From TrEMBL:
Name under which the protein is recorded: Peptidoglycan hydrolase-like protein with peptidoglycan-binding domain
GO molecular function list: hydrolase activity
One Gene Ontology cellular component: cell envelope
UniProt-listed Pfam families: PG_binding_1
Signal peptide: none
Subcellular localization(s) per the UniProt record: Cell envelope
Peptidoglycan binding-like domain segment(s): 141-188
Residue spans crossing the bilayer: 26-48
Keywords: Coiled coil, Hydrolase, Membrane, Transmembrane, Transmembrane helix
């Protein structure tokens, strides 16, 4: 069974409250190939004249085509950006002078330095809680558990991974500090490490070597490329977490994606720009992504799906005197005219419905 995709563009507004549709596109997918249509003028292509179709009964058409059963998928085309997702800022804490920073594009993993202060490394740890207080003997809490998990992952032992920072933890911390080449205090102060959910990719330096610590140092993203979309709230219903989408790359290649997050807070557009929500899409088929970063892509969101639709070449339609359409069904060397209702048009293909139609029936088409 083939799939017919009807695509509509999310376009700019030419005046408040009215949206222009930049283009409608319909794609027929199947073993026989792909047909892409621009949206203009489809309803009049290949329809013939306006005479009575009964005159065509006396002669067989020059050629025939089979009625096909398809699944009709209507999609909304929206613009997106292929990159590494939204950037977060690392703010330096404590005192000292920046003596080194990881450069843009650098990937930093757990235990490796993100930047250096007074030539002492500030390493990356994984987690969701920042180092917001000094960790020392007697400290208890979820941040202690997070830190101890990192310490264990870095290969340090001799303590229990729990929510209590005890003497054994302090001893392991001193060994870690010795390996880093920093003061062996057995305590972990705010600013002693950068905490992120996982490996990071440096996006931009916000400070320079020689600057005093205290402001933004750099920004970072995740290491996996994603597609980000500022989606007009008019189409928010189409963006469901976990939904599969199609992504068209600048090269013309397409890859599959899956919506990983949908923003809960709308951003009001400036002037005549629409109000949007942020949508993030995980991308499959990474081999096709090349080195794209901050590249424009087109995302096809599924709007509606209509199974079991009949489709024929547009040339099979003949105009009826009442303004409707019909097709010539060819069976056993005879021709009969069957009135039809039309649905979606493609360049060369149209959805039809009518009494007595069946998959595989032959209809007349131009040669």
């Amino acid at each position: 069974m083939r799939q017919v995709l009807t695509r509509r563009r999310q376009g700019p507004r030419d005046e408040p409250g009215r949206r222009l549709v930049a283009r409608t596109r319909i794609v027929v997918l199947g073993a026989a190939g792909v047909v892409v249509a621009g949206g203009a003028g489809l309803a009049t292509v290949g329809l013939g004249g306006g005479g009575d179709p009964a005159a065509a009964r006396s002669a067989l058409p020059p050629a025939t085509a089979a009625i096909e059963r398809t699944t009709l998928v209507e999609t909304q085309d929206v613009d997106g950006t292929l990159g590494y997702g939204g950037a977060r800022t690392v703010a330096g804490a404590g005192q000292g002078t920046l003596t080194w920073l990881a450069g843009p594009g650098s990937v930093v993993s757990r235990g490796r330095a993100v930047y250096r202060v007074d030539d002492r490394p500030v390493p990356l740890l994984y987690g969701g809680l920042p180092l917001y207080r000094t960790l020392a003997e007697g400290t208890k809490g979820s941040d202690v558990l997070q830190f101890e998990r990192n310490l264990r992952a870095l290969g340090y032992t001799g303590f229990t991974v729990d929510k209590t920072y005890d003497a054994a933890t302090a001893a392991a911390v001193r060994r870690w500090q010795d390996a880093l080449g920093v003061d062996e205090t057995g305590r972990v102060a705010p600013g002693a490490a950068v905490v992120a959910p996982g490996r990071i990719r440096v996006a931009e330096r916000k400070a320079n070597v020689g600057d005093r610590v205290g402001g933004p140092v750099l920004t970072y993203t995740g290491t996996t490329r994603v597609v980000s979309v500022d989606l007009d709230v008019e189409y928010q219903r189409l963006a469901r977490k976990g939904a599969e989408v199609e992504i068209e790359l600048p090269s013309g290649d397409t890859v599959t994606g899956r919506i990983s997050s949908v923003g809960k807070v709308a951003k009001e557009g400036a002037e005549d720009r629409p109000t949007t929500v942020e949508v993030e899409i995980a991308v499959a088929g990474r081999a096709k992504l090349g080195s794209y970063d901050k590249a424009p892509v087109e995302v096809h969101l599924t709007a509606n799906r209509h199974p079991d639709v009949f489709a024929v070449p547009i040339g099979a339609l003949i105009a009826r005197g009442d303004g409707g359409y019909a097709v010539q069904v060819v069976q056993n060397g005879r021709v009969r005219t069957v009135p039809v209702e039309t649905g979606v048009f493609t360049e060369g293909r149209v959805e039809i419905s009518g009494a007595g139609l069946a998959e595989g029936m032959k209809v007349g088409v131009p040669s």
